[in-house]
Amino acid sequence: MNEAAMSASNPGLGRRRLLIAGGLSLLARSGHANSEVVLYAYHLKPPYLEDLEHRQGLYFELAELLGLRTPGIRFRTEYLPRRRLEADLEGGRLHGLVIGVNPVWFKDAQRSRYLWSAAFMHDTDVVVSLHKQPVLYNGPDSLAGLNIALPRGYYYYGVDELVQAGKARRTDCEGEESALMMMVLGRVQATIITRRTLYAFLARRPGLRGQFHVALQPHDEYERFILVPQEFAEVLKPLNDALHVLARDPGWQARLQERTLYR
Question: From CA 214, how far away is CA 190, in angstroms rounded?
Fold first, then answer.
């Protein structure tokens, strides 16, 4: 159902959208008050969301920096589990933006369902195995015959198809850190993890450094964006203006820099 049809079938939704857009525009122009825009995030892992209670992590930092560079708008990051976030987004109940995502993950490769900010981060997913039993990865078929630990509910192209064909086994776990520990315990032979998360985990657990092998060929590389629902269209330009400034900010870029532990 398109936006016009949704508004016609739900007048309250249409009025709410007009109020949100109009309110943000008015406040941004006046400069006398701040409207608050929530950035919802579901990546509950370092370095993105490290400590919810103390609001530590890259996504909390980015919200603060964006607020300093967008007159009239204050940004606040909040955690929301993926399934709840997606259900609220589909149902028109998500009163905010979605941070750290890619159009492909939300079936919007053509960017026609939602608005999308400029990319603010490049990320890589890598195949990790034990140093004493390295997996020389050069594509999903390299994982044939292995037991692979992967976070529950996440899709990994090529790998899930390998599992469905009976050529590999998938063991679901709670998160990427759990997958690494399952390898240490000898329960699985490989996992796929975001490189930044791997480095953040090893920074916390230095005793595990040297135990893992990171394949040279990544499983995936992608950009992270901020998904902007149509009713928040007024936010897109000031958001992009702020992101372009941050792209040239040495402090923020240094914070994003991946520190390679396997030199």
Answer: 10
CATH 3.40.720.10 fits 3-122+222-256, yes or no: no
What is the spatial distance between Cα 260 and Cα 263, in angstroms, rounded to a whole number? 7
- Sign of the torsion formed by the C-alpha atoms of 200, 205, 208 and 210: positive
- Alpha helices by DSSP H, 136-249: 159-164, 176-184, 195-204, 233-246
Query: Contact at 8 Å (CB) between 27 and 72?
Result: yes
Could you tell me the two tokens for 213? Answer: 């092998």
DSSP-derived letter for residue 138 is S
Return all residues near 162 (Cβ < 8 A) that are at least 6 apart: 140, 141, 143, 144, 168
Please provide the CATH number assigned to the domain covering 123-221: 3.40.190.10
- Burial category of 78 from C-beta neighbours within 10 Å (exposed 0-12, middle 13-18, buried 19 and up): middle
pLDDT (tens digit, 9 = 90+) per residue, 128-185? 999 999 999 999 999 999 999 999 888 899 999 999 999 999 999 999 999 999 999 9
Whether a cis peptide bond, with omega within 30° of 0, leads into 103 is no
pTM over 0.85: no
CB atoms within 10 A of CB 169: 15
